[in-house]
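Subject: two folds for Thursday's group meeting

Dear M.,

Sorry for the delay on this. The cluster queue was jammed most of the week, so I only got both jobs back this morning. I'm pasting them in the order they finished. Each block is the input sequence followed by the predicted structure tokens. Could you check whether the formatting survives your parser before we put anything on slides? The first protein is the one we discussed after the seminar.
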Amino acid sequence: MILTRRSLLTLTSSFAALAATGVWAETTAPATAVTPATPAAAPPTIVDFTLGKADAKVKMVEYLSFTCPHCEHFHAEVFPKLKADYIDTGKVSIAYHEVYFDQYGLLGSMVARCGGEMRYFGITDMLYDKQRDWAAAADINGVVDELKKIARAAGMDDKTVDACLHDQPMAEALVAHYQSNIATDYPNDSFQGTPSFIINGAKYGNMSYEDLKKILDAELAK
């Protein structure tokens, strides 16, 4: 089941539990302090990051989950060939649309995005390479510990990652963004799962590299 706004209540509780155990330190004003009212901040703007030339003839979208084993297999076995043969050669561009089946996947996304666009795709690769380590952790504290290892390997410090993982407005904006993507591309609850692909407007499910190659070559030949 895909993470809903109601499910974010569980995520919020998890954040609070982590803060209580010292994973994230929280500071509060004294009870006697008066905090002036401040205008509500605008929600963060979420973008879908893209690999490849902007003018590539074939536009590809991948709906992916960082905790999905089928996505991990696609990125280990199919994606390197896709990248070498089609993306790096300027024939295909691919946009990642993240899907959240659970709070662990959302936390993985927040770490990937924490590094900015320059680090996003490298961290994505690391999340899949190490999926069995972090996504299978016994509890959320273990997930955070493993995600921090990935972030450190990508050149980020713990303080930066803590701030990203504790960003509740960002979490809510990410969930709203993926819900909007799916509502647009897969109306009437037609989304089947990850990985799913949209290639020049046509929708496909998971597939081998051989089958993907046939579709891409047919589009390039048009």
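Second protein, same layout:
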Amino acid sequence: MIRVAVAGYAGRMGSAVVDAVTAADDMVVACGIDPHGEATDFPTYRSIEEAVEAGGFDVVVDFTQPSVVAHNIDVALGAGKDCVVGTTGLSTETLEGLAAKAKDDACLFYAPNFTTGAVLMMQFAKAAAPYFPEAEVIEFHHARKKDAPSGTAVRTAQMIADARGFESSAPGKETEIEGAEGARGALVNGVPVHSVRSMGFVATQEVIFGSMGQTLTIKHDSWDRTSYMPGVLLGIRSVGERSGLIIGLETFMG
């Protein structure tokens, strides 16, 4: 039985993780970590330090905030606890630095997106990238999302850039009119990325490729947070057999 600590258990994603872990036959919620959480039917702590001191868990699942996730990972890995992280906003360099301090071969697994459809979308974009001179990413999220662009959009742009080996020649920031700077989006590894924040969305992303006389659009929609849970459970089941830093759910999807 895998004993799971859920950091951010009182939040929207954290609550969904608690429900998914509770429903699984091979794992149990050992404790919750959240300074704003209320008493429930499992032990709860206000900080990662309190949870580590109490012990009794094997892996931490973190869906907290960009401002605290690095600290949570640092403490957990320092105690030899595996980490499954869905909180975005961390650079690859930061993740590498945190993983380097892990004890007892602990694993840091970070996924910009836990939905299988989003992972496939990124893989399809990677496959298409060498064949199209232009590519842009548009991502849509709920109004309360703390970071822009999303981790999925950043990861997608990085994968496109790595796969094609050239930069777009499409008009860029030099075409933005005065007072409308940013109209061409943020450049991530040379790929324009545009972020939309509005009520009504959970998570949607489009990758638009263009070449002479044609466009290719790859789109993924997530309408409910339960769509993330199979990927989260896969991460929980897989980290115990790994060590070091692992990025991307595709690593465990085969």
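Two things I noticed about the second structure. The mean pLDDT is 94. The chain is about 30% helix and 25% strand.

Cheers,
T.
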